[in-house]
Amino acid sequence: MRIRRLDDNDAETIAAAFAAQGWHKPAEQYRRYAAEQAEGLRVTLIAEVDGVFAGYLNVVWESDYAGFRDAGIPEIADFNVLERFQRRGIGSALMDAAEALVAERSAVAGIGVGMTADYGKAQILYVRRGYVPDGRGLDSHGKPVVYGMSVPVDHDLVLYLTRHVRLA
Questions:
Q1: Where are the domains of the chain?
Q2: Alpha carbon distances (Å) from 138 to 36, 65, 124, 142
């Protein structure tokens, strides 16, 4: 397995790999990631197994989530491993690399996780790695969920977590 940074030639390969498993992740998304990486806004890490794309994640230096942005906490975001490569340590290797990057700039890493069973593997991985809720409750479509509010249970219902990655 090899972990490396996204390059300009990866977009079509990644989009095709996800399309093959029935997930819509357009190449334009990865071209945007490459441009933002070149601007220093994010780092996109790619995992390959025997030269074959297996997964990726991003370290976003300034999170869209207010709780992280206001505290200066970088966010590990859009973390995906192809189904055929799951349960082989690839996700953990990507997280190790991402946390090492974050530790160069911050004592704390942040990550968000969806609340449906689709995110069950991620929920377990993050807890096992020592991530804990940031104490702000759930977020839905970029806004805090407050008592009595009705929100859709979808991919945008998120709990944000943090973990110390180095001594302050």
A1: 2-164
A2: 27, 11, 17, 10
Q: Please report the pLDDT score of residue 107 as a whole number.
A: 96
Superfamily of chain region 2-164: Gcn5-related N-acetyltransferase (GNAT) (3.40.630.30)
Q: What pLDDT, on the 0 to 100 scale, is given for residue 28?
A: 95
Helices assigned H by DSSP within the chain = 11-20, 27-38, 66-71, 90-103, 120-128
Q: What local confidence, expressed as pLDDT, does residue 166 receive? A: 82
**Residue 65: partners with Cβ closer than 8 Å, 6 or more residues away:** 75, 110, 112, 139, 142, 160
Q: Which two tokens stand for residue 17?
A: 């790999």
Cα gap 91→64, rounded to integer Å = 23
- The model scores a pTM over 0.85: yes
**What parts of the chain have a pLDDT lower than 50?**
none
